[in-house]
Please model this.
Amino acid sequence: MKIMRSRAILFSLVMLAATGMPEAKAGEAEIIAEVNKAAEALDEAFERQDADAIKQLMAPDHLAVTPYYDGPQNVAEQLATPAELHYSQTNLDEAAVTLLGPDAALRTFRARLDGTFKGKPIAPNVYVSQLLVKRDGAWMERFYQVTALADGGKKSSSCNGLVGTYLTENRAKEAGVTSRSLISLAGAHLILFTDSGEGGEAGFVPFTDGRGTWFCTENADGAHKVSATTLDFTAATADAKPGIGRLDFDLTYGAGTETLSGTATLYLLPLDADPLDPAMLKDGRQFEITGRRIGARS
Model:
């Protein structure tokens, strides 16, 4: 009965949105900002596994339906398993907020989830629907649904045009060029990474080439966003034990210039650590990346 009731709630919200809810007026912009702030705070609380913050940001009669839970879960059931949910979330487009009245709002967006629940990988490409209500002067989430998308959602065939190898310049914050790299975006979502600093340099021990996975989405404005993760291994030295390096890329592709630009965040982990567990990703070092595709002579 809970499943039927939760689906009825969401169906009613979708019908309201589809039948012509008015666009946000000037006075509604502040309300939408408050809704987004509350929703983002709840996302961050789950990533931190902060049970107290989660409870404050969810309504007492909250219900969640996701591909990774065994079924619809109330607040107590969700709070009983926060330590078993490890994930990081990357929103693939700006959240759309529809005000359903002075004290209710529907928020939807596509996202990339990287993580596990009870040790099992969760669906990476999802569509998120949130019902937020205002109670006692504060916005909180009342209903949350995650729908798994088999193909990553609004994935464009034009992303195939990104396949190739790019020569990049990498800059640490408040520093000049720290290294140069070759990034290859191949078919089957394979990414290869080679860096000029692999032989070791100040602050870094020698490390291997990186390999991993990339995916691409096309925004409403036609811009292509590339997210990728590569793993490599660091070498044992007299001063350091062998370890694992993880790079998380957040890039934008310029079709007219065939360039990549954005950031990469580096995490260094012990060899016996799980580099795919978001809970392990702490104290990352961020680099700014700019690069252009390598062309061949005709």
